[in-house]
Amino acid sequence: MEILSNLNNYHIILGSQSPRRRELLTGLNIPFEVRHIDVEETYPEFMVGVDIPMYLAEKKANAFADKMHENTLLITADTIVWHEGIALGKPANREEAVKTLQKLSGKTHQVITGVSISTFDRRKTFHVISDVRFANLTPNEIEYYLDNFQPYDKAGAYGVQEWIGFVGVEHINGSYYNVMGLPVQRLYNELKRWK
What is the rounded CA–CA span in Å between residue 85 and residue 109? Predict the structure, then answer.
């Protein structure tokens, strides 16, 4: 039995350089190709919350627009950590990573992923929100994480699937895979309905 046979006529492209998004989309067991879309992840200053990752997912899709063919189905996404009215993106350096993890320590934040599905003549963009509660992190735990893992390509300076997630995440309300960077269950449902 074939899953998502409605997509058989499409050449599916994941427009992302994230190894986690690639891994998660692989889990849906559909054929796809990965293409890097080089776009500056900036957004208008007035934007808040869910508007930011949805805007960035569409910005990535727009950057690929001239390479779209009639049978291309493009998936782009962007994830932010939203905490106390501020978007926490990827840390620029170690000092920024320390400050970010200190802000998240002992508090609840939101992980918001915007996903855009685009074809030659159609686009659907949606978002998924997960609430993540962190335990109080000690300075030693933060230093250990930064010494042994690579948080610099991750929104909020952490990967939930890494050591910091094992010891620091007390509770997730919402999709775990969304926190990793791609809400695959919602994406699957959207792809199922794609005509």
Answer: 10
Does the annotation count 121 as an active-site position? Answer: no
Is the separation of the CB atoms in 11 and 171 below 8 Å? no
- Model pLDDT for residues 120-177, shown as the tens digit of each residue: 999 999 999 999 999 999 999 999 999 999 899 899 999 999 999 999 999 999 999 9
Which helix (H) or strand (E) element contains residue 177? helix 176-180
Taking the C-alpha atoms of residue 48 and residue 52, their distance in angstroms, rounded to an integer, is 6
For β-strands 72-83 and 108-119, DSSP reports them as antiparallel
Q: Which amino acid is at 160?
A: V
User: How far apart are alpha carbons 169 and 109 in whole angstroms?
Assistant: 11
The reported pTM is 0.94
In angstroms, the CA 16 to CA 27 distance is 16
Active-site pick, 78, 121, 131, 147 = 78
Q: Which string of b and e fits 82-111 if b means at least 16 CB within 10 Å?
A: bbeeebbbbbeeeebbbebbebbbeeebbb
Ordered by where they begin, the domains of the chain are: 5-192 (3.90.950.10)
CB 110 within 8 A of CB 119: no
